[in-house]
C-alpha cells in the first residue's frame, strides 16, 4: 500500500514539474556564446535557461573525488580530449557515454549523503530557499528546484543584463553567511565551483525537470529535503 502511495505521489509531483514556469529559450548555436573554464567548462548565452547543481564543500570525500578525477582524465585522454578540454569535441555518442560514466556517477556521490548535510536541517534549508526565492521574477526566473541535504539543483533563467555568476553569488554567498551565523561557525560552506549547463531543447528542459522531481526518491530520502517550482514549495520533508 505504501509503495503504491509513493508511486502516485512521485507521478503527481513529476506532472506538476512539467508545467512550464520559465519562459524557455533554448541554446542558439548561431548566437554569441561566451565560454570560460575553471575546473569545469562554463558556457554563457543571454536569455537562456541553465540547469545548476551546487554542493556543500564537504559533500564528496577527497579520496572519492580524486579517484573519479583520475578515471575521468584517463577516459578523456583515450577519446582525444585533454583534461580541461571541450566535451563538445566528442561525438554525440561519446558525450552521452561520458555523462553516464562520470556526470551520473558524481551525482551518485552527492546522493549518498556524505559530509555534515547541514541543509537537512529545516532552519538551514529555509535560509537557502529564502535566497532562491528573493530574486525570482526580478533578477531571474526560477523553474524547478530542490534543496537536498548537501546540494541543490535548480533551473534558472537570469534576467536581461544579469549574469549567472551574479545569481550564484547571491544564492551561495548570502546563504553561507546566513547559515554560518545561525550555526556559530566560520569558513566556506559551499564548494566554490558549481556545475551549470545551458538547456539545449524543450526535451532537455523536461528531462531536467524530471531529474529534479525524482532526486529525493532516487536518493531514497524520507526526510531532509524540499522541492519547489518557481515561488511555490511543492513538497517539504523535514522532521519536526
UniProtKB/TrEMBL annotation:
User: What is one process in the GO biological process aspect for this record?
Assistant: DNA transposition
Q: Which domain of life is it from?
A: Bacteria
The record's GO molecular-function terms, alphabetically, read:
sequence-specific DNA binding; transposase activity
Q: Which Gene3D superfamilies match?
A: Transposase IS200-like
**InterPro entries in the cross-refs:** RAYT_transposase, Transposase_17, Transposase_17_sf
Residue intervals of the Transposase IS200-like domain: 45-215
> Which PANTHER family does this entry report, sorted A to Z?
REP-ASSOCIATED TYROSINE TRANSPOSASE
Instruction: Output this protein's name.
Output: Transposase IS200-like domain-containing protein
Amino acid at each position: 500500500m505504501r509503495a503504491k502511495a509513493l508511486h502516485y505521489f512521485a507521478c503527481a509531483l513529476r506532472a506538476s514539474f512539467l508545467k512550464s514556469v520559465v519562459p524557455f529559450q533554448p541554446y542558439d548555436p548561431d548566437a554569441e556564446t561566451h565560454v570560460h573554464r575553471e575546473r569545469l567548462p562554463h558556457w554563457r548565452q543571454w536569455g537562456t535557461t541553465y540547469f545548476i547543481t551546487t554542493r556543500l564543500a564537504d559533500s564528496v570525500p577527497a579520496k572519492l573525488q580524486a579517484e573519479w578525477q583520475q578515471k575521468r582524465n584517463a577516459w578523456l585522454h583515450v577519446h582525444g580530449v585533454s583534461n580541461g578540454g571541450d566535451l563538445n569535441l566528442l561525438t554525440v555518442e561519446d558525450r552521452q557515454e561520458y555523462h553516464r560514466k562520470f556526470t551520473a556517477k558524481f551525482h551518485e556521490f552527492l546522493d549518498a549523503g556524505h559530509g555534515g548535510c547541514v541543509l537537512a536541517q529545516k532552519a538551514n534549508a529555509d535560509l537557502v530557499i529564502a535566497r532562491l526565492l528573493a530574486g525570482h521574477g526580478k533578477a531571474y526566473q526560477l523553474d524547478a528546484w530542490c534543496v537536498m541535504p548537501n546540494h541543490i539543483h535548480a533551473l534558472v533563467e537570469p534576467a536581461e543584463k544579469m549574469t549567472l555568476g551574479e545569481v550564484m553569488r547571491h544564492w551561495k554567498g548570502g546563504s553561507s553567511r546566513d547559515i554560518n551565523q545561525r550555526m556559530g561557525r566560520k569558513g566556506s560552506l559551499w564548494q566554490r565551483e558549481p556545475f551549470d549547463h545551458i538547456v539545449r531543447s524543450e526535451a532537455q528542459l523536461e528531462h531536467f525537470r524530471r531529474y529534479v522531481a525524482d532526486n529525493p526518491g532516487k536518493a531514497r530520502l524520507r526526510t531532509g529535503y524540499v522541492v519547489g517550482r518557481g515561488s511555490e514549495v511543492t513538497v517539504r520533508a523535514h522532521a519536526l
